[in-house]
Every structure is written in structure tokens, then in C-alpha cells.
């Protein structure tokens, strides 16, 4: 069994490679739910939805999130009732949030709901939210705590980042199956996702960090920072805010206490030595997932770094 | 102040006439909420929405409900998650239900929410739900109790009607302002709505029936039964189920203990004597609301029957 710790867009692209190489029923994704929030009273889980939409071929590829060809009539109408509209929700996508909220109110867990959605979209892999309890990633700024999505989308990452707080993490538990999946994994792959918020929020759930120490499988991370900048998203601003070097070395340092192998891009070959100085063997390969073949090649290289071989 | 007891489509057409004749700020609509139900976990109030959408010129005129030109992408997606789809909800319309549900969960009352929606759609009249407590109209059939909307839409009125039950009415209270509006009205107009379910559910709210006795204004009803059949909807099946004659006479008998004047269509002129035998003065006029002029003429005739004169 392969476990993948996943954020949203970067992780989904990485997973598009993994599912070309590993049978879906041998894959468990542990998804970041720190970006989850209530919009119009509906519970939105951006990262799990991005993974499901992407792997099922339903995603709006231009954005990397939402459903392809979606309309936004409900949102326009909601705006006329006085709601903010910086968080774009299409009509078909809204159905997912209506459904999730409906089932949560009926007492279903986020795990159960996510499993149902995964199946509805025809996927065979297992997607586990990191926790069934709400954990919300907030950015500490001079204006106070701001939900990560608001910081990123509404405020366009313009605030000074003083800290990142995972509200609710203290008392949360890993979702059922998360700890066992990590401990029993043949390999744990850390997708090229934001190390501070996406992977950071998964690591904030009590017990997950320890499980990464205890797993008998290799833990292999792919750096989301290439050539000194993130492929996508505000990882650089958050890393700087937390005084983390914006490079594959900085990422490796975040993960060093449980990481077995780091995978970095060819552009960063010169950083191999610095990462290996941390005691982390480092593989240099093409990590730019420009097309389907590049995605599969990266998945193969990462699995090979974990000591596993797939055709 | 003119009070109108209102169901959905028939009442909205009648109100389109009333607002041509009476300034909106002199009108209070008391709306049936017995058709309200939860769909996908969202609270839907069919009749108040029909009134608001119709009077604001936003309604889908072909159906008489919903918003004109609406799409149904969310509903299609929800169907793929296993939901039933017999209750058509467009995307823009869904925004109304998302908004209502969101505010209810925040502790707002249905009255407050309805007032807000009325204002959002640019209307100046006052629309009061009959009650802020949920009351749901159920049809007693050989298969058990069935929500009125399910009986009418999903089951196409095919069940034998044994009784009509207003679930929750026993312990409900009239919404704030309802009793005062009726008691202080210059006239209470009973729209040509289904007498059993739409008006019947309003009358089921404790205190409303008594207020109709106590009002100093005239109580005038327009028969929704013309030529032995309802203009729209299943009133005939429900009336037969309750052993009520399917005619303007049967309607007048339902309202006789508080009704001052009955307004019937020219086609039913031969029923005037039978209704007057009940002690109810009866006005014969054209009640078929074929166009805007006919609607205004009907409103004028009804107001005149109530002893009021508008230009």
C-alpha cells in the first residue's frame, strides 16, 4: 500500500502520475482539510475536492480546481443577497458542498462523505481526510488571524505572515485509518504541496508526525520549490514568514526528522549536497509535471527512491 | 391596510392585480408555509418564493414558479450523488434556499428572512409567513402520511386522499404581526388559492381563524374553483377527499363562519343563489386572470366588494 500526503493542485497532478503506475486500490491519499471552511453555510473541502475532481478527469484544468464547464448562477444570485463572492463556487461544484453539508448535518463523518464522493466520481483509490474534526489553517498577520483561503484569495497574500496556526488541531484526532495506513505503508510519499499549510496542517494532527517516525515504509518527499520559487501558490511567502529558506533545502529541513529521501528537480541539482548534509539521501530528477508522461515518470522515480518498482 | 391570505401561483397572479391598484406599502401578504420542506438539507418555502419571484417579475412564467431562464446544473450533479430529482430546483433558485437555510441556522426567523428576500427583490409590500415554526401539510393516504409536495409532484396526485394534516400546527404560533395585521385590516382578501391546503394551512395556525372573526375589515374570498374545476392544481382531488363539493359553493362553505363576501366567476353565476343561501353576499365577475388588465379589474372588483375604492 502506497500512502500519499496531499494538498490540492500540486498533489493532484502528482497523483495523476501515481495512478498511472500504481493500481488505485493500492493507494491511500491522506488529504489536507485545513483549507476547509463554511461558505454560505455550506462546508467546502477544497483539497479533497481538487483531488477527486482531478483524478476523475472532471476538474477545470485551467484553474486546477472546480468542475470543467461549470456555471456560477447560484453564486451570482447569492451575491445579490449580500454575500461576498471572492470564493468562486460553480453550480455543479456547489452540489458537492450541499451534499457534504447535508450528510454532516445527518451525522455522517467527513471520512464517510469523502469515501462516497470518491466512489461517485468512479475512483477506486482511498481518500482519507486528515481528520474528521474541523481544523482550519489560519495565518497570523498584523491584522489578526485570517483563514488561509481568505489570506490567499481575498487578500491575495498581501498580509505580512507572522505565524501559521492550525485552529482545532490540538483536540483533533486523525481520521479512522490514517495512522494505520501510514504505519503499514510500503511507502509514504509527500506530494509537492505547500510544506507550511498543506502538508503542515496534516502534520499538525496529533499522532500523524509520530506515525511517520514509526512507519516501516520509506518516507519520500517531492520538493514543491523549484529554482527558488513554488510551482504554484504562496509557499514562498509563508516560508519566509516562518523564516524557512525558500528552497528544496528549506523544505527538507521541515521534514528532516522523519524523511528518508528527498526528490528535487534537475534545476536544483546544486542543492543535493546541502540536503544530503542533513542526512537525507537526495534524488535529482525532472519534477516539472508538464504532461501525462512527465507525471508518470516522476511517480516512477519517487517510488523507486522509496525502494519500490512498478512497471 | 389590505391583508391577502395567499398560496402560490393563483395567489401571485391575484396579487399582480392587487399591486396595480393598491400601493405596495399598504399590502400585507400572509403566506402559506405548509408546502415548505427540506430538499438536500436546504429549507425550501415554495409559496413565499413564488409570491416574491412573481411580483418582482423574476418568475419563470411558464411554470409559475422558479426563476426565469434558470439552469439546473447543481441539481443534475446532486442526482449523480443519489438524490431524487422530482422537485426541480434551478441554480439561481437554489441560492435562495442556501441563503434561507444559512440564516435559519444562524438563528434568524423565517419572518426576518422573508422580509430580507422581499427587499432584495425590490418589493415594498410586506410578506409574512403564516408562522415562524415549521408546519408541513401532509396528505393522509392508504400508504400513510405523504408531504403535500411529494403527493402533488412525485406521486402526481395519484393517491386516495383520506385527510389533510397540518403537522406542527398544534404547537405553532402565528408569525409576529400576523394577528395584528388581520385584526386591523381594512379588508382581508382570500386569494383564489387551494382552500384545503394553501388557505387551509394558514387557517390551521392557532389564532388566525379567531382573528378573521374579530377583524373589523371585510373578509372577501375569490373562488379558485371555476366551472367545477380548479384553475390550477389538485384542489378538486383534495376537496373530494374531504367530501367538500368541488364548486364555489363548496369553497364558500369552508370559509362561511368568517366570510363576508364571496367573489365567483361569471361561469358560476348560477351558484350565486346557493352561496347567498349560506348567508354570504356574492359578487359575480370575471375571475379568469388572463392578462394584466384582467388581474387589475379583478382586484378592483374584490376591493369594491370589501367596501374599498381604489382608482
Describe this structure in words.
The structure is a homodimer of 311-residue chains. Chain A is α/β, with parallel strands linked by helices. Chain A has a domain at 2-44 and 170-305: Rossmann fold (3-Layer(aba) Sandwich), CATH 3.40.50. Helices cover 38% and strands 18% of the residues of chain A. In chain A, the strands form 4 sheets. Chain A has a 7-stranded parallel beta sheet, with helices on both faces. Chain A has a 3-stranded antiparallel beta sheet with strand order 7-6-8. In chain A, helix 1 (9-21) runs parallel beside helix 2, helix 1 (9-21) crosses helix 13 (292-305) and helix 4 (91-105) runs antiparallel to helix 5. The model of chain A has no long low-confidence stretch (mean pLDDT 97). Chains A and B meet through helix 3, helix 4 and helix 5 of A and helix 3, helix 4 and helix 5 of B.
